[in-house]
Specification:
By secondary structure, this protein is an alpha+beta fold. The protein has 3 helices and 5 strands, in the order βααββββα.
Length: about 120
């Protein structure tokens, strides 16, 4: 997913599994958000992207609305400034969404960094 004017976007297996589970409407909404990330990179503004508070890492989230529901895709930028899509989910009615998803995203990020040789 590279173009000369944009940001490389890398999807982890966990993100891909979630994306494949979405229906057509949700899938299109997520694809549009990922495209914006690819075009804008680190300058993607709120409300499209926001920082995750309380993580040990500089995680961010794509804020996606689909059919009135808040979908979220957590990501981080690696040492090459590629955007790494870590995990996604539907935040609708889930008061503990971040409590569940942030630790999972952190584990996926740690594994990704080790596999890419970026250290712990």
């Amino acid at each position: 997913m590279h173009n000369s004017h944009g940001t490389d976007v890398v999807a982890t297996d966990e993100f891909r599994d979630w994306y494949r589970s979405l229906d057509d409407g949700d899938g299109r909404a997520v694809a549009r958000a990922v495209k914006r990330l690819e075009i804008m990179g680190t300058s993607l503004p709120y409300p499209h992207s926001s920082a995750i508070v309380g993580s040990r890492y500089p995680l961010r989230e794509l804020r996606i609305q689909s059919g009135g529901r808040p979908l979220r895709a957590l990501y981080a930028f690696d040492a090459r400034r590629s955007a790494v899509l870590l995990i996604g989910g539907d935040k609708t009615g889930d008061d503990r969404f971040y409590e569940r998803v942030v630790p999972a995203a952190e584990r996926i990020w740690e594994t990704y960094r080790k596999e890419q040789g970026f250290g712990p």
